[in-house]
UniProtKB/TrEMBL annotation:
PROSITE patterns: GATASE_COBBQ
Binding locations of substrate: 130
Superkingdom, taxonomy of origin: Bacteria
Example GO molecular function: glutaminase activity
Chain ranges of the CobB/CobQ-like glutamine amidotransferase domain: 6-201
Family stated for the protein in its record: Belongs to the CobB/CobQ family. GatD subfamily.
Stated name of the protein: Lipid II isoglutaminyl synthase (glutamine-hydrolyzing) subunit GatD
Gene that this sequence comes from: gatD
Amino acid sequence: MAYSLKVCHLYGDLMNTYGDLGNILVLKYLANKMGVELTSEVISLDQKFDPDKYDIVVFGGGQDFEQSIISKDIQSKKQALTDFIEDNGSVVAICGGYQLLGHYYIGANGEKLMGIGALDHYTDKQKDHRFIGNVVIENEETGEKYHGFENHQGITFLGKGERPLGKVLEGHGNNGQDKTEGAIYKNVYCTYFHGPILARNNDIAKHVLVNALKRKYPDADLEPQEELKVGATF
Ligand code: GLN
């Protein structure tokens, strides 16, 4: 194939509670349709994250226990992950992964788990409550609608340079207050949507792949890839 992309499945062995691995399968499937070879590897505890090695990072959701372990380990990867993001690397971060890319997450037991602050959001706790259910949002820049399912106790508030992935039409989203769901920063897509969100929302997968291809192959003519119709046609 003419193009290739490499995915880092960050803490893929610990943060995969809702079948988030499915997102990588979807990326691979769509990449192949685009004539792009896509491979992935898990980078987990005590392993180095090399920002020059990857085009896309997928960071899944998880429970507070796993997050408390990762909160410590990820500090050693903080600079490399921040460099990757600032250098326009593509990231898909879900739930617990989304929370740990920000400044901190307050767990259900009140413990403050530090994130890496690569993005400017923070996540507070709800009082004995979780947001659970279907969510529908609209990306106000593209008009695309995204569908997902949320299950989180954390409530996230966006910071500098971040815009929401979408406006909440149904469900709770980031915090149940400001009608925002998820975050976009540079080529980073964050969301509370569970499981293989990219299977239900091929448009997001396409943005991630096209952004990664444009970064890796700045001189290539990617028009055929961008023209690819995703969604029901598959
Ligand atoms: N443990 C976090 C919370 O409850 C994240 C949950 C998740 O990844 N779905 O908010």
